[in-house]
Amino acid sequence: MSSYSRSSYNFLNSLRETVERDRLISPADHIVCALSGGLDSVMLLFFLLYYREQLDFKLTACHLHHGIRSVTADEDESFVRELCLRKGIHLDVRHIDVPGLAQEEKLSLETAGRMARHEFFRDLIKEYSQSTTGSCRIALAHHADDAVETFLLNLGRGSGSRGAGSMRVADGYIIRPLLETREADLKEIALAENIAWQEDETNLSDDFLRNRIRHRLLPLWSELVDYDVSRVLLRYIATAREDEDYLSSLAENVLKAAQLPDGSLSTVVMADLNPSIQKRSLLLYLENYYKDELDTEQADISSAHLTAVCESIKEAVHGDKRQRRHYLPQARVAEVSESRILLLKKERLC
Q: Among 31, 113, 154, 228, which is 20 to 30 Å from 124 by CA?
């Protein structure tokens, strides 16, 4: 058993309570720690190694070499390999040319990187699920400050209250044990325990919107109001998650009633719903389609998409009843008629 300082033990114990409260890890599980080499992921591994002493589960790690910064990305990989070797942790590494993927698919670097990561995660889940008697989960190192930044990003995209609670401690095969922990606390413990990590140069660049929110918006906002804005936003996010859970359960019931045998959606059932439930039900339908047909967690459906389709549903049932088409991400089309909403591949319309 390892020995820890009192502050480190309190930190680790608080994370253990989060994991046990939300039942994130069970003894027969296989947990894959997504390890970039940065502060957050190294501290996640620090906790998982501690928790494995309390609960005997299988622990491995994975690392994505994204090719964005060739020299420093190589250094990150070397650091992660050496760390896992010292700790006796099996490591899976994948090399992906994210800039090339972004150019080929006409995506931002952030979106392309997210797609590459989730494809890597899904492949690991498929591989390891065959050899584990428990659940196979990917542990991500998102912390409370990441949740605030994601909320503000979603707010800027017009995602509404649903975007406030979009980052969760448990989300399918993804777990986020650090989500209720502030980044400053992670750094304090890392320094106290002499834990080394890699500095990610992309986190310092204001070329990315998330970084501009982190480095410019939040500090200025906190300075103007003379209190920690992030702490207040975290309270709002927690409340929004509770509200969203309730509304989502209503949307799931509506979706069951509206789904037709051929997989399309009844416009008659959808037309006269409360607008909030109508949009949530439609979004859930679209997200399920993207997940089943395209094997992606990222539908990237905007509030504008939802509003346009919902207006067409109302017109199709109560208005001129003519068929309408709405073009969605990843070459998909929502075809709205008097009786149903049907999702099609764009090329089928040519």
A: 154
